[in-house]
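Listing S7. Sequence submitted for prediction.
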Amino acid sequence: MAAPMPGEAALGRRLMLHEAEVQLTLGRQLRDLGDGLLLHDPGDSEPFWNRLVIPRWPANPAAFDRRLDEIVTLFATLGRVPHVRPAPLHNEPGDLARRLTDNGFGVVAADLRLVLADAGPCEELAQRFEDEAPSQRLSISRFPAASAGPARSWTGDASAVLAEAFQVDPFRRVALEADLLACAARPGCVVLVLYEDAEPVATARASSAGGGTYLSSIGARPGWRGRGYGATITALAVVAALQAPRRRSARGLPIVHLAVDVGNIRARRLYERLGFRVVGEAVPDLLAR
């Protein structure tokens, strides 16, 4: 791994915090515990919505164990599985992940954080889409929109794409649609669906708040992969993010970021071609066994 850029650790923590902030829908809460941030959904026990983010705990073994016991007790009080997500760089303590696995936590997934460094590739691809879409029988719909039609229709289209793209359990389809509706109802959130003729083929979500936009739910249906739809929907989501009103970063470019599974090399390379760069190291999902 290359040496971290100046300010990389602070940027990594900012991205993790911002991701949690834009997911505050459906009554979810974000609590500052002083040494970490607790995202909690009172109505959904799914671990993704119930996690402790970027904790900073003492390095002293006895003090660390005491704090870990307190956090495990807190999750038990909430009726949730203890779930910890470290920072991409410079965790406190530095061996945080190892200590958690030594204490019965398991790594169930890991992802990389990427931030937009060059908007040019996405802007060029989005413009090309606008120029060529009619001849290719493609169209893009953005929700919420005055002409979007019944909510059930577009949420059904978006959730159908996501269900196939990410092999979502059928029992979670209702929750998936509810989450799409909640996101679209919040200021700063837009859901994009790409259609080939009338068939939904790809989708993405851009959630803006404060000084940035988090892109998520980016996927294309398996039967339509290999046609550039994943790149197209990502570029269109980036352009939507760049157009959202917000404060700009010190370098003039709004903070636009996303996460990709550490094993999804193809997607990572796609995002890098679109102007994103990796921040820090892989972030593991650590759940108590």
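Caption to Listing S7: primary sequence and predicted structure tokens for the chain studied. The helical segments are 8-22, 61-78, 96-102, 120-132, 151-166, 173-185, 229-243, 265-273. Residues 8-112 form one domain.
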